[in-house]
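worker-03 picked up job from queue 'complexes'. Input manifest follows; two sequence lines, order preserved.
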Amino acid sequence: MRDVLLTTIRGLGFGSVYAMLAVSFVIIYKSSKVISFAQPALMLAGAVLVSYLAGPVGFYLAVPLAAIGIAALGLGLERTTIRPMIGRPVFVVAIITLGLDIAIRVVVNVFIGPDVRNVGDPWGLNTVDVAGLPVQERYIAMVAVLVVVVGALFAFFRYSRYGLAMRAASLDQETAMVQGVSVGAMTALAWAMAGGLAAVAGAFVGAGGGVDQSTWIIALKALPAIIIGGLDSIEGAVVGGLLVGIVESFFASYQGEYLPWLGQNFSLVSPYVLLLVVLLVKPYGLFGTREVERV
Amino acid sequence: MSSTTTRRRVAAASLAGLAVFAAGCRGGSEDPADGGGGEGGSIATDVGVTSDPCPEAVNPDNGCIYLGTLSDLTVGPFAAAGPTIVAGQEAFWNRVNEDGGIGGYDVNVSEYVRDNQYNPQVTNQVYQEIKPDILGLAQTLGSPPTASIVEDLAAEDIVAAPAGWTSLYLFQDVILESGPTYCAEAMNGVDYAAETYSAQSVMAVHYAGDYGGDAAAGASVAAEANGLDFANVETTAGTDNQSAAVAAIVDQQPDVVVVSTGPADMATIVGQSVAAGFQGRFLGSSPTWNAALLQSPAAPALTASYQLLGPWGPWDTDTPGHEAMRAAAGDTTPNEFFLSGWVWSYPMKAALEAAAESGDLTREGLANASAALESVDYEGILPEGSGNYANGGDAAAVRTTQLSDVSADASTGVTVAEADLEGSTAEGYEFTEACYEAIDLG
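worker-03 finished. Artifact:
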């Protein structure tokens, strides 16, 4: 039972990071109907920025500063490369984000260099006793930051004028424009928010182990999460991310013992198995909007 | 179609044809340098050697030997290592040039540096681009990328220095490898663990393929030779993907774990396992170490439980070769990849010197000279007799390893604990093909 609980907590920890990344994908998708493949690079850039800022200003200040910096980068990307593509097929825009990802990573790699960069988090691999369980502090921090970030996002979308405007723009752009909403500004805001979220996720990806040039791959774990949750649902992204983390954690701990015939490292495949199962039952994901098509 | 358009197309086609013709001449003709560089006039040359000096030549009176580099410089998995390896080899050849060059020629390794992105297709493409202009390759990084060009290298007699230690290189004639393979390294590590730590069980945690698979094969052979239990755990890159490996270690509690991953993954495996109560030892293959890990949360666990299996002594080692490398590095931040770029260059220097000595710096002359090398002077970095390419893969295999402890005082965070370690397993093992292909890990 002890091991099961520890495995669950580890899954929730990593799942929280996947969830933050998944939410960043969904925010862009809702505003632009595009899956942005630049998110891995923005996550890496955020983590590296934290690693540089943590020394002078400390980790707790470095994270929001990096989030602001990467949000500004996201805003800049939207204005320079995405805005001119309005009206073009979303496939083209997706390919552009792929190019942006590579370009940003090449630049960020220069700042990483050949070493592993430490993000300066205060938790390291320390554990804390929770009801007799030695729980790693960073997992608690990951879950806590997810709760804070998602809570803030829901409050923003529900109670703020800009949040309402973003929701309106994502539902129907033309109607929103008629009501005086600047759809372009809302898209830019979405890209900035997604950049900031990716940066926060990056800081926590690096917690306990640091970041190197290959860390960007972790962001791709968000892809099964957003499909499981439903591409256009923020709550779906949160649930999807947590599910991916937990399923992966359980397969990593127990599959070798109970299902050895599946081969080694099946935990890497497990999120995609979950994805297939979910799509068989709910083709639009757990919380996705069912598309209504006129025929 | 208008006549203007037709004329333009004819003109464009003519220009293209001219360009192809010019390129063909460049690659196929005898170079005007035939007859030697600055000093002799008796050295035959063909491709990649000119009587004109190198760009920004150290010795303007010398001719120029061009060596290409195919390295992972931007987006591949070893992009962190590639540029530093290139810097190390540039420092090495700069020193050669400052000492007068080879046979009246300076050696240029900067003009034809290309990014292979660790991708076989890209490697082949950029290799074809530089092939007409180079005598050999100062570096080809990665076995899969190198595999995509190795047949052509052999067909064209293009000699290449690799960046890696897989045992596959022992059996590729145009590849001038240096130091012990991952396979021999792991054998020595397991022999050492059996003797020093009285280990009864060994687990290999490794990436698949020519690196991790090679080390795991060596660990498997040594475990069998020592009568130890052996467990094979394959893992994949990514610090978030090491939970299964950690679970296997904590669950099975082997006495020693041979880790063959990247540095961040190794630190995750060691840090997490120790945090979960694992009390055995870790031995890491040479690519597992990075000095920055001393600033990571895993540092205490690494200092207490981890040792590095290295092909040669780390940065601070006291040999003439290391001393020359440190002098050439100047203010460069100490880095083991820089040292590797330096060491991997020695066989090419020996081959070029032998070819120049025999009066034949053609590709065929260089290939013949390298195939006849029975030893290379590594200035003490590798044992006497290393660099024996004349007598097959088994004779070429170096079997000594440097075992290092983690030390915060050392320039690159590691200091030699056991020099020239050569266990009975590696000593008695006959290399007949790549270990990871010969040994079934089950």
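worker-03 released lock.
Chain B has a mean pLDDT of 90.
Residues 3-28 of chain B form the longest helix (26 residues).
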